[in-house]
């Protein structure tokens, strides 16, 4: 499902217990200096990540100051974030005008809060210009935090260069059938450089049958519950997407690659390292 950009007035874009993707939560909060916002999502662990600007985050009896590096845009510097325990209130106080992503995954247990600083981001770059798959991923809550997070995976993904494909070879993760695949709901928020760029999100629900395609613009949100879902950006533009994954029974993601394209894994440099980072 594609959700076109709109002024959400600091209210969830994908609310808790969404009928399509109940395992994930997503909000965008815009604040001016001195303004505060209290985030509390019962039954969901969350991660607070400034897309731009700087905030202080108070949660779980701690205060994490100066989260964010005053990014002019998401291409400007490394991300930072704060992990918030399931259902805990978090007070976000803006110190430099900010646009803040709040990512969540359904999880009922308590795990202590912590901050992820720019120096602790776990990056991976893979693909190539020749294969039109050159991409960089900055893991905020990835493999590095195994055991400290319940079901939530949070990353920033970038196309490297201009134009090209992401999420290819086509894959899905909508069914629990280990060791082949896990059920993870997913949500994306897209940005383009320059902002008038655009892209395409494909969603093929069954092998051998035609699927759907959505026109992506700056600020588009996509919720993915089922099916194979590669995306691409127009030549001449860069694409970014903020990624939220919530697992049904476990945090490590096991992707099932579409049989008709799975052999492409062997042609894309570094893709196996990328796959491992989501586990």
Which descriptors apply to this entry?
eight-stranded antiparallel β-sheet, seven-stranded antiparallel β-sheet, globular, 1 helix, single chain
Task: Report on the architecture of this protein.
The structure is a single chain. The chain has 279 residues and is mainly β. It has a single domain, classed as Jelly Rolls (Sandwich), CATH 2.60.120.10. It contains 1 helix and 21 strands. The strands form 4 sheets. Strands 1, 9, 10, 11, 14, 15, 18 and 20 form an 8-stranded antiparallel β-sheet that branches. Strands 2, 3, 4, 5, 6, 7 and 8 form a 7-stranded antiparallel β-sheet that branches. The protein has a 4-stranded antiparallel β-sheet with strand order 12-19-16-17, with no helix packed on it. A hairpin with a 2-residue loop joins strand 4 and strand 5. The model has no long low-confidence stretch (mean pLDDT 94).
User: What's the CATH superfamily, by name?
Assistant: Jelly Rolls
Low-pLDDT residue intervals, each spanning 5 or more residues: none
**Assembly level:** single chain
Helix content: under 10%
- Total helical segments: 1
Task: Please give the number of β-strands.
Answer: 21
How much of the polypeptide forms β-strand, as a percent range? over 45%
Q: Which fold name corresponds to the CATH topology?
A: Jelly Rolls
């Amino acid at each position: 499902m594609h959700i076109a950009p709109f002024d959400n007035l600091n209210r969830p874009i994908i609310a808790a217990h969404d009928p399509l993707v109940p395992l994930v939560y997503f909000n965008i909060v815009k604040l001016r200096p001195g303004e505060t916002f209290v985030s509390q999502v019962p039954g969901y662990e969350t991660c607070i990540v400034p897309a731009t600007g700087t905030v202080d985050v108070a949660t779980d009896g701690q205060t994490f100051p100066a989260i964010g590096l005053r990014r002019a845009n998401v291409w400007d510097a490394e991300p930072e974030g704060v992990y918030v325990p399931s259902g805990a209130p978090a007070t976000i106080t803006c110190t430099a005008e900010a646009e803040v992503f709040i990512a969540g995954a359904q999880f009922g247990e308590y795990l202590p809060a912590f901050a992820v600083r720019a120096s602790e981001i776990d990056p991976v770059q893979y693909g190539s210009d020749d294969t039109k798959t050159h991409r960089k991923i900055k893991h905020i809550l990835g493999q590095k935090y195994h055991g400290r997070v319940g079901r939530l995976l949070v990353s920033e993904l970038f196309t490297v260069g201009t134009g090209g494909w992401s999420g290819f070879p086509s894959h899905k993760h909508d069914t629990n059938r280990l060791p082949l695949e896990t059920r993870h709901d997913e949500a994306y928020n897209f940005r383009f450089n320059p902002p008038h760029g655009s892209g395409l999100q494909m969603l093929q629900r069954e092998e051998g049958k035609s699927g759907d395609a959505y026109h992506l613009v700056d600020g588009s949100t996509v919720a993915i519950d089922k099916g194979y879902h590669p995306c691409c950006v127009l030549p001449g533009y860069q694409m970014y997407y903020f990624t939220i994954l919530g697992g049904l029974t476990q945090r490590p993601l096991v992707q099932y690659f579409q049989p008709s394209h799975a052999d492409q894994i062997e042609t894309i440099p570094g893709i196996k390292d990328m796959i491992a980072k989501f586990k």
